[in-house]
Every structure is written in structure tokens, then in C-alpha cells.
Amino acid sequence: MSDLSDDPTAPGGTRRRKAATIRDVAQAAGVSTATVSKFINGGQRFTREVEDRLTTVIRELGYVSNPLARGMITGQTGNVGIVILDILNPHFTSLVKGASRVARQAGLNLLFTDAAEGEMPELAMLQALSRRVDGLVVSARLSDASLDWLVQAGPPAVYYGGRTSHPGCFSVGSDNSEAALMLGRHLRDLGHRRIAYVGFSGARWSADRHAGLLRAFEGSGVELRLHDVQAPVPEEGERIASSVLLCSEPPDAVVAYNDLLALGLMSQAQVLGLNVPGDVSVAGFDNIIYSRYTSPALTTVDMGSEAVGAIAMQRLVERIRGEAAGGGHETLIAHVLPRGSTRRRGERA
Amino acid sequence: MSDLSDDPTAPGGTRRRKAATIRDVAQAAGVSTATVSKFINGGQRFTREVEDRLTTVIRELGYVSNPLARGMITGQTGNVGIVILDILNPHFTSLVKGASRVARQAGLNLLFTDAAEGEMPELAMLQALSRRVDGLVVSARLSDASLDWLVQAGPPAVYYGGRTSHPGCFSVGSDNSEAALMLGRHLRDLGHRRIAYVGFSGARWSADRHAGLLRAFEGSGVELRLHDVQAPVPEEGERIASSVLLCSEPPDAVVAYNDLLALGLMSQAQVLGLNVPGDVSVAGFDNIIYSRYTSPALTTVDMGSEAVGAIAMQRLVERIRGEAAGGGHETLIAHVLPRGSTRRRGERA
DNA sequence: TTGTAGGCGTTATCAG
DNA sequence: CTGATAACGCCTACAA
User: Fold this and answer.
1) B326, A1 in Cβ contact below 8 A?
2) Nearest to B126, CA basis, from B154, B103, B100, B92
3) N or C, where is chain A less crowded by C-beta within 10 Å?
4) Could you report the per-residue pLDDT of B6-48, keeping only the tens digit for each?
5) Angle at the Cα of A286 from the Cα atoms of A282 and A290, rounded to 5 degrees
6) What pTM was estimated for this model as a whole?
7) A119-147: per-residue pLDDT in tens?
């Protein structure tokens, strides 16, 4: 195996060639390192001659300033971190997409952490991460100990997904209770009387969504039953489907904690011989892309996942730059998207 | 708004308290910084007294070593980068999941870059990224200029998705042509005679998959038509559906470049009044999670997305540690997953 | 406009 | 076992 390395004894292939430093550039251009530094960082004018020489030399040497060394002086890493619960959940995927775009536009690199992979204690993970970033976008669904530490000793942070109990925090998210209220009213207006909510108690938002449904059905005589799964994934929806749907007085509508669960529920309902929405309506939350491509298409609530990610990162960038206006919670409006999986009771296709 | 900051004039909320340095620890414990450093990094024994004092002081001060400063001297950042094409595509999401898990286990942070967000030139993005990481997992679908630079001047890299033309490179991926060959044989064996391939010429793999289909149908009298879309997304599948399916001699099977396209195609086929698989079979690639939850469930080819991500990162970690055995390409076996969207011609439900 | 020099926090070397 | 000290590459007063 041949390569272009300086060091042919490099193990396992090409060893990285030692990169040019600011001193190499200074020497080659016949100026001081300070001049090079100012040239790189802009904001000063130079002799035509110096400018030309520097431009040439820098290109020839392929010089790129070392972010670590720079960071030591400026105290800025040029990185921001994002901590999410599970990248396989399209809701978080969209969140990352939005955050990633804004970070990129701000010239910041994104340090990604999937908390679902956590063998490491959450707090230790946050502490390790925090020294490598200028700020953090994190899920509000962290332990109180982690949140306390973050607020007191951590880098600037923006929380997504819910209002935190800490004052002075920045957070952004959709109102889960309100979203569920709207979905509940939609179902009530369609004439449903017996509704099952398949929640995921491992998520804080699940209780909010349940509460919203309760509000929607308050005094309307609608019966709301509560189920719970171990994880917000399609497999769990499939698993719990029979016990939700085949009981003695089966529900005429099922609301799932999220679209993934709803996908599994709907699929298994059809396997069990039920017609959706003829026999039972199904609805979820998050408006993941795939909810459009089931048959029937899944009624869901758009929680603005990508926008939440983008806004959270936008606020973080502002905080890092010292432009932030103060703490507080920003709430996005959720939208119910009625689709084929919910239908008025009494109607037939 | 009140906070616990040292500096009440901090803009936009809490300013990060200046973290304890190794010198603070040394002074408080009455030892030298060198001793503290060795204590932190292990691999040496100490007096019981020193050990106790250091343990105490470090905890009290909450000291965590500064990764930037350490990186300057060790030459290691403790970060690895991953460059993918579009995180919204579940294939890449799984890839990141696998890579993330392995990186975490190796104690490395993951710097994530979504190339689809690229206003910045690809090469510039890579150069900026490369100084911040010890290694890179990147898509082989980069421009030749980028690959050249990466091989010559970049950090250790592992390419996923295809064999690169550069010798001495590490790459890992599934064999697209072989995968398509298997899928093609499956369709041929089911008795299909007129097959449409909806490719995405923007991806290198698409040509490989087309070639695999051609091999499968060689000399069998099966007709293979080629279509092309602008992006590998469901919307494009929907858009092209009518022109693929409603022509004068419509195909009896459609193979899409990936599952996302297939989802859109299948959905729109049903809107157009066609029965899948009765009138036309549909199949895709990647085995994204959602392909199980369409109706009918989508026949697809499992390309081992998450495993590819994990293996790529595993090889990268080995290279970084100098344990790598040499360059080369690692090929994963793809599996055809026959599901409800493909059915033998002549059979009826 | 340009140069000099000090220091950011850590590790590695070498001496005690 | 422990300590003093020189780097690592860069930025930033301050001086010229």
C-alpha cells in the first residue's frame, strides 16, 4: 500500500502531514505572526505588498488556523452541542435538521449526542460535552440534577420541548396540552364517545397530552381510557394493539402518544381484521413524514419539529453572541392535520 | 432576572463561571501541576496522602480538564466527524445511529455535518471540519477534488457506501449492484416481464442498482425501463407516478432507487386507482423502518444501514488508535425482504 | 501599518 | 513518587 505520507512508517495507512502553523506562514511571507493573525481575522488594512504575499503563502501552504489554539485564547470553541433522546425518532431527526441548518449558517459546528445511547450517566455526559462547546441545545426531559448543574455551571443552553422550572432559562417548544386539546375536540366533534389514549409515561410530554385530552372531553360524556407502553416505537404499538382494541367494549378512537406508536397500532389493527377508520379512528402526534404515506393516511398533530430545532438554535446563537433579550419560553402553535385515519362516526366509506 | 453568575453584567443571562484550572487544583492540594496531570491521566501511583487530597480538591472544585488545552499538546481532539447527505433520509439516520453508538463507546464525541445544508463549498466545509476532529466518516459520494484533498491532507477517514477509486482508502458498504441483482431475480421469479426502475441519477449508487437489475434480467426477455427523479424523496415518487404507471404499456413492477421514493410511488399508485400488488408490484431499497408499516408492506432490500455506520466508525477508531490492519473495502451482505407489495403475476388475493 | 512578548491550560521531559 | 519547565499554536495588548 503506497501513499503520500511524510512518514512511511505510519500505522494503518496515511498519517496526517503536520499542518502549517501561523509561524510557517509568517516566516515564508517575511512578516510577523501578529501580522498574519490580524490578516486572517480581518478588520485591519495592510500594505498591498504584504497582503499579496500573505494571500499567496497561505494558499500555497494550505494554512488553516488551528481552532484549538484559537479557542484557548478566545474562549470560544466554535462548536455547539445538541442533545436529543433518539435520532431514530423522526421528530428528533427533524429537530436536528432545523438546528443543524441554523448552526451552519452561524458558522458553528454541531456536536451531536444521542442520549438513548447512554451507558454513561447523563450528568457526566453533559459535563464532558460542555467543555467542548460554546452552548447547548438540550431536551428539557433531563433529570433535575442535570438541569441544576447546567443552569449553574454549564454553558449557555436552550431547552426544547417544554417549559423548565428554572427561572431565567431559555426554552422553546409546542404546547403539548393545547395540541392534545385540539386533537381531542376534533375527535369529539367527529362523534367519538369512547377513546383510548396510548401514552408513554417515560416522556414528560405524555402526561401533558393526556391532560389536554381530558380537558377536551370535560363534561362531554366522552370516556377516556389510559394505556401505557414501554417505548414510543411502532413495535410497542403493535404489541399493545390487541389489548386496546379487542376488549369487551372497544374504543371507537385511539390516540397514540406519537406517530410511531400510531403506525404500529394502525398496522396491527388491520392485521386483527379491524377497519381503520371504519371500526376505529387512529391519531398520533408529531406529523412525521411517513404518517402521510400509510393507508389510510394518519391524522396527526404537527408540533413543528424542525421549526422548534431551528428556533432553539437561533436563540442559542443569540445568547452566545450576547444578543439575547432575556429568558423565557417560546411557544409554537400546533396544528391538527385531519387525514384518512379519522372519520365521523356513522359515516361509511 | 436573577442568576448565580459571578458577573451580574453578563448579557442575556448567566455567564459561564470561570472553570477551575489544573493550577487551581495544584495550589489547593499543595502539589505541582505535573502531579495533578499525572493523577488525572492515571498510570502512576501516589502517596496515600496526595491521592486523598487530590481526590477531595478535584471534587470540591469540580475540576474537569480542558479538552482544548489537552488537545494542543496531545494532538488529539477527542472528536470524530461524520458527514452524511441528508439526515431526514432514514437510511442516513440509521447510519448515524450506528456510528454514534460506537463513537460513544470509544469515548469520542461526534461532530455531525449534514451535507444537504451546504451553502458552503464541500471542500471548504471538510477543511474546516478536519481541524476539529481526529478522524472522519464520510460518504464516498463526494467530489473527486474533496476526496483527493482528504486522502492527501485530511485526517484518517473511512468512507461508507462504496469503494473509492483511491488505493489505501478504508471503505465499507453494501454492494449495490449485487443487492439489485437479488431483487431483480426475485421479481423475475415472480413472473414479472415489464419492469420500471425509478432511479436518482444524483446518487452514484443509483447507477449500480440499475446495473444490478440489468444483470438480473440479462437474456430473460424482461424489459427494463429507466426513469429518473430530482431527489430521492416521497414527493418525487408521487410526482412521477402517473408517467411511470399510466403509459400505454404499463409496467407490472416498479423498482425505486430507495424506499422513500417507493413510498411516494405506492401511495400515488393507489390514488390513481391501481392495486398494489394486484396491478403492479413495488419495491425499494434500504429497509427503512416505515416500509414495514405501509399497506401493503413494502418489499425492500436491507442494506444494513446501521451496521454500516457502526462498522465504519469501528474502523475509524482503530485507525485513530493505530490498530488498523490496512486499507481495503468491507462489503456487507444485503438481504431481500419480500413483503406484501410484490406478488407473483397471475395470482389474485 | 507592523512587530514584540506574554500567556491561554495542559502534557511531556527530565531532573530530583 | 514528585516538581520545574518547555513546548503546543494562537491572539492581543502595547510598543515602534
Assistant:
1) yes
2) B154
3) C
4) 333 344 444 566 789 999 999 999 999 999 999 998 777 889 8
5) 75
6) 0.91
7) 778 888 888 899 999 999 998 788 888 88
Q: What is the identity of the amino acid at A136?
A: L
Assigned C-alpha cell, B281: 408490484
Q: Residue B245, SS3?
A: helix
- Kindly state whether A73 is in contact with chain B, defined as any CB-CB distance less than 8 angstroms: no
Average of per-residue pLDDT values in chain B: 89
Can you spell out the DSSP letters for A194-251? EEEEEE-TTSHHHHHHHHHHHHHHTTTT-EEEEEE-SSSSHHHHHHHHHHHHSSSS--
CATH architecture for the domain at B79-173+305-332: 3-Layer(aba) Sandwich (3.40)
CA–CA gap between residue B39 and residue B54 (Å, rounded)? 8
Measured CA to CA in angstroms, residue B270 lies from A107, A277, B31, B237 at distances of 45, 17, 76, 12
Dump the DSSP string for B28-91: HHTS-HHHHHHHHH--S---HHHHHHHHHHHHHHT----HHHHHHHHS--SEEEEEES-TTSHH
d(Cα A130, Cα B334) in Å, to the nearest integer?
40
Q: What is the grid cell recorded at B300? A: 425492500
Sheet holding A170-174, edge to edge: A328-332, A170-174, A157-160, A135-139, A79-84, A109-114, B109-114, B79-84, B135-139, B157-160, B170-174, B328-332
Considering the four listed CATH numbers 2.130.10.10, 3.40.50.2300, 3.90.70.10, 2.60.120.10, the one that applies to the domain covering A176-304 is 3.40.50.2300
Q: Does residue B188 contact residue B220 with C-beta atoms inside 8 Å?
A: yes
Tens of pLDDT, residue by residue over A153-179, are: 889 999 998 777 777 789 999 999 999
Whole-number Å distance, CA A37 to C1' C5? 15
Enumerate helices (H) and strands (E) in chain A, giving the number of each.
Answer: 12, 12
Which residue type sits at B225?
R
| Structure-block grid coordinates of residue A30 | 517575511
Domain extents in chain A: 4-74, 79-173+305-332, 176-304
Q: What is the pLDDT of residue A89?
A: 93
Q: What is the Cα–Cα distance from B314 to B330, expressed in whole angstroms? A: 12
Q: What is the DSSP string of A142-156?
A: S-HHHHHHHHHHS--
Which member of B4, B105, B326 has the closest CB to residue A12?
A: B326
Protein-covered nucleotides of chain C (CB closer than 7 Å) are 1-5, 7-13
Domains A4-74 and A79-173+305-332 share a fold: no
DSSP per residue, B292-338: GSSSSPPBEEE--HHHHHHHHHHHHHHHHTT-----EEEEEPPEEE-
Q: Which CATH class is domain B4-74?
A: mainly alpha
Query: What is the C-alpha separation between B283 and B111, in angstroms, rounded?
Result: 34
Q: How far is the C-alpha of B109 from the C-alpha of A80, rounded, in Å?
A: 12
B residues 144-163 near A, CB within 8 Å? 151-156
Q: Can you tell me whether residue A304 is helix, strand or coil?
A: coil
How many Cβ atoms from other residues are within 10 Å of residue A317's Cβ? 22
Distance A206 CA to C10 C1' (A): 46
Q: Residue A20 and residue B22: Cα distance in Å, rounded?
A: 29
Cβ A110 vs Cβ B116: under 8 Å:
no
Here the cell at position B318 is 482503530
Residue A2 has pLDDT above 50, yes or no: no
Interior angle at CA B44, CA A128 and CA B23, nearest 5:
55
Determine what percent of chain B falls in helix, strand and coil, rounding each to the nearest 5. 45, 15, 40
Measured distance CA(A247)–CA(A237) in Å, rounded = 16
Give CA–CA dist A245/A262, Å, rounded. Answer: 13
Angle between helices A48-61 and A22-29 (to 10 degrees): 130
Where on strand D do bases come within 7 A of a protein Cβ?
1-5, 7-13
